[in-house]
Amino acid sequence: MRRLVGETTLRPRQLILPMFVAEGLDAPRPISSMPGVVQHTRDTLRKAAVDAVNAGVGGLMLFGIPATRDAEGSGAVDEKGILNVALRDLRHELGDATVLMADTCLDEFTDHGHCGVLDADGGVDNDATLRIYAQMAIAQVEAGAHVLGPSGMMDGQIGVIRRALDEVGHKDAAILAYAAKYASAFYGPFREAVDSQLKGDRKTYQQDPGNAREALREIELDLAEGADMIMVKPALSYLDVIKAAADISPVPVAAYNISGEYAMVEAAAANGWLDRERTVLEVLTSIRRAGADMILTYWAAEAAAWLD
Ligand code: PBG
User: Fold this and answer.
1) Does residue 233 carry a catalytic annotation?
2) Contact at 8 Å (CB) between 70 and 78?
3) Tens-digit pLDDT profile for residues 6-29
4) What CATH number is associated with residue 257?
């Protein structure tokens, strides 16, 4: 009876696995604040990606960790940069068997850790950053990404990337816009995951956790600029924002079940305070119930196997 009348579905194809690949590693490096998640070598990334696709996940979202960084984040646009090289590996290995996505943002590649380049006063220079995002997007599509995930919250980023792609003929590349991205404390473990160099915070370009109306404005702007899918991030503290986005969005809505949300459950489960599998499935189901069509989650491959 419960199966017959259940309202919310949770299927493997709705889950996207974020993955980390680091330059110059000999063996995968565990991320201590995200037990079970690692920085991959190019080799182990390929194997883990194949396993995730075989488990049924709908897509992969790739983040790269370079060996060296500079003020402009030049490793992000370099075709030999770790993220572009790894995208090429995965596209070669997987072809069109999954939807391959790339994080289109500079924070992993800059020596100051911000999502854009800085101006003379040390603030993020929105428009100078857009020019680099355009090049980064083209490099990622040429390396094999099907979908770009601009996550830097620069104003105008979706329009600039869309025009740049169209101009060079990449009309089929899609954009998953991190439209409503909050300046969240829950990103903490991600900073370890990508060896982030960030000293300050991202409050000048990410959203204030108290603002919901602003999220809808960000979403409308990204839609007008050509977003093919939109995202709300983080997920659990923002289920109302996911719901509001789903109510108005003419395109698919994604939610990012982020590093801190993962770490909380893992820590409690490791202590025997929560039933891990039940909690994970309840978390993912609640994000779907709020209205997310797809969920980026570090549990994607494991949960997909449970659901199969
Ligand atoms: C920025 C980016 C971040 C995350 C994904 N893309 C970090 C930030 O904005 O500070 C966080 C993901 C997570 O915490 O799981 N490139």
Assistant:
1) yes
2) no
3) 999 999 999 999 999 999 999 999
4) 3.20.20.70
